[in-house]
Amino acid sequence: MANTNPSQKSVHTKQIIYLTRHGVARHNCLEQVVNGSYVKPNLKDPRFTDSPLTPQGHEQPLKAGEVLRNHILEVYQQPIVIDGVIVSPLTRCLQTTQGMMKQIANYDDRQQPKIQVPRQWIAREELREAYGIHYSDKRSSKSHLLKEWDSHVDFQHLQSDEDIYWKADKRESIDDINQRIDKFLLFMCWNQLLRNIDTNRSNTDLRKESLCLVTSHGVWMECLFRRYFPNILQGGKRVYNCEVYRVEIESDWEHTQINNEWQCRCIQVTGVQLINGHRNT
């Protein structure tokens, strides 16, 4: 727990997240049938459980990671630390993050990192695609994910081995997704609050805002934007595979004397920029 300054009664926080939709996965592609025509895949088929990236899907994050790396270096003009990498525990998001991380690390002439990234990413259920009916959105077991990704990903926030949220006969509602989005933003803002009030932080660490990388899904991201920053989706804009958005999040907190705790008064998305596309707002 961060040390707090008792004289602080209110705190305003700001952070930047680079939010990416996963690359093209198996369930995103048309399937060829016997007569040679192509049809949409049947997502109720267990073959698509936690579908991985296609070859094209593996190429996309390499390109997106290069664009993001160059963008970060241009914006900050100095060596920078990525404070956190948070990812949906579905395989396609883990693979997308892996591809992007290969490009994010950038070195100067002395082989010193210009962009320093955490050794481990954090998997959060709140970032998942809508639960239910579609097997592509059913998570692999935690034990399987640990075998595949243990050295890269912290899965401690997954509460069960098997996916207890996914139901074969019921799809999650938009309201349900919005609740998960609110929970995730509160998690991010709480961690930023702790950073801001930590009296043990180095005096040389003057960057009050944190910088995080987040990988999620199309429906989740579109729900986030419609709820908090709808202008970015004007004109029927959709969120496409491996698009990267720079998202500014601000929050206001008050310290209550009665319970001796911090309460969040407001969370806002104050800016969204598509960095590997053509729409900026």
TrEMBL record:
<dbReference type="InterPro" id="IPR050275">
    <property type="entry name" value="PGM_Phosphatase"/>
</dbReference>
<dbReference type="GO" id="GO:0005737">
    <property type="term" value="C:cytoplasm"/>
</dbReference>
<dbReference type="InterPro" id="IPR029033">
    <property type="entry name" value="His_PPase_superfam"/>
</dbReference>
<dbReference type="Pfam" id="PF00300">
    <property type="entry name" value="His_Phos_1"/>
</dbReference>
<dbReference type="GO" id="GO:0016791">
    <property type="term" value="F:phosphatase activity"/>
</dbReference>
<dbReference type="InterPro" id="IPR013078">
    <property type="entry name" value="His_Pase_superF_clade-1"/>
</dbReference>
<protein>
    <recommendedName>
        <fullName>Phosphoglycerate mutase</fullName>
    </recommendedName>
</protein>
